[in-house]
Amino acid sequence: MKITQQTTAHTLTLSLDGELDASSSVILDTELTKPEILNYQKVLIDCQRLNYISSAGLGVFISHLQRFQDANVKLVFFNMQEKVHNVFEILGLDTLMTIVPSESEATAI
Amino acid sequence: MKNVIRISCSRANLKTVRDFVSAYLSVYHLSELHINQIVLAVDEVVANLIIHANAENESQYLQLKLAMEDHMFGIEIEDDSKESYLPSTFREPDLLEHIRLGKKGGVGMALVNRIMDRVEFSSSGNHNVCRLYKKVV
Known about the structure:
With 109 residues, chain A is an alpha/beta fold. Chain A has helices at 25-33, 55-70, 82-91, 103-108, and strands at 2-7, 11-20, 42-53, 74-78, 98-100. Chain A has a single domain (2-108), classed as Transcription Regulator spoIIAA (2-Layer Sandwich), CATH 3.30.750.24. Chain A has 4 helices and 5 strands. A 5-stranded mixed sheet of chain A has the order 1-2-3-4-5. In chain A, helix 1 (25-33) packs parallel to helix 2 (55-70). The longest helix of chain A has 16 residues, at 55-70. Chain B has a 5-stranded antiparallel sheet, covered by helices on one side. Chain B is globular and about 40 Å long. The longest helix of chain B has 22 residues, at 32-53. Chain B contains 4 helices and 5 strands; from the N terminus they run E-H-H-E-E-H-H-E-E. The two termini of chain B are 20 Å apart.
């Protein structure tokens, strides 16, 4: 799992490249745990190169969502592959998290 | 087509297991989405066995055996841990509660149960067998 960061004044974009499983999800957890992440208004997750996600990867997002909401930080996913979106759907997480098709839509939120 | 693999109980081997299951299923003309679902279900069970049942002890091993018969995919996962999973302890996760509490775990078996048609766990002494089945077209 490779995570690339891009920042603007109020937005942090994390681009995920690879597979998020019980082994690799620790890296993402470390990124999302950093206190300074709560200084942004939006955290965008670019999923274009995210080829796989297991419950361990989903668990990382689930575990930080309330913390983000409490700090008024929006967490938005975009460019998600169908097979990855399907995993969110199976659990019903697609209705609890903000997932949009494109970067422009994510930026507009 | 290779249908048996033996791995040590290390998280690093999860990728090996996913590639093994994907390669086995690749000849059956299934959609990418369906292959991903089956691979995910296997990954979830194997991760639980590696992390929880065997405490990531790399001197312990899991054996996985795959089969396809009459459009029914089956996998048998064997291990020799003292901790065996009891399906009767399964509770459907309350996602809103998980979010509120910031829980990281506890949704893997829900994925397995929702994806697979049949999920069985059995134990005899310290020998445990998990069998997963999924009808494929």
